[in-house]
Amino acid sequence: MELEVKILDINIERIRRIMKGAGAVLVKNELQENYIHDFPDRRLLNQNGYARIRFVKDQETGEEKVFMTTKKLISRDVYKKMDEHETLIESKEVGLGIFNALGLELLENVKKSRESYQYKNTLVEIDVNEKTYVPFPYLEVESTSEEELEEVVTLLGYTMEDTSALSIHEILKARGITPNSPEGL
Fold first, then answer.
1. What is the number of alpha carbons within 13 Å of residue 162 lying toward its C-beta?
2. What is the Cα–Cα distance from 60 to 70, expressed in whole angstroms?
3. Where are the domains of the chain?
4. Is 142 exposed, middle or buried (0-12, 13-18, 19+ CB in 10 A)?
């Protein structure tokens, strides 16, 4: 099970310096296109889940990969706990075709850059979305260990009170920004 928190309005260069200074390894530097899907009756979103095709291009090597994923929110207290299933697939077109054949509809296509650092067993991900979607950079800190997640948050110079387990949609709404995405994402 994945535990996740977000830290908003980050200073990207500061986060990079801290990660490099702590010996974290840059494991991803990629451009992503995320195709978010659900059934016409929104049964996945209504149960706090969704299906996604993610096209990834590595900014260092140019390598391209495509992943098919389902996610479902298990709980959201201090951490966002997600049940996630993901597999590498042949192509974006194949994945979109499978979703279409299953009756899923495309709800949204989100483009962003993601820079990910591995520190111990925790990922620290710097996300920069299209400004029309999320107009500020943020971190996602993902771990399977509560203790390690809290350790990383502290290492980055934050407290758990500085974090959020809300979805991007909920964060935007709380800031008075009308999200372009369906509620639940």
1. 17
2. 27
3. 2-174
4. buried
Number of alpha carbons in the 13 Å side-chain half-sphere of residue 110:
25
Radius of gyration of the chain (CA): 16
Q: If you average pLDDT over residues 51-70, what whole number do you get?
A: 97
3-class secondary-structure state, position 45: helix
Instruction: Count Cα neighbours of 155 within 13 Å in the Cβ-side half-sphere.
Output: 22
pLDDT (tens digit, 9 = 90+) per residue, 96-132? 999 999 999 999 999 999 999 999 999 999 999 998 8
Under CATH, which number does the domain 2-174 receive?
A: 2.40.320.10
Contact by Cβ (8 Å): 120, 148: yes
* Distance separating alpha carbons of residues 18 and 8, to the nearest angstrom: 16
How far from 176 is each of 22, 30, 109, 171, 172, CA to CA, in Å? 36, 29, 22, 9, 6
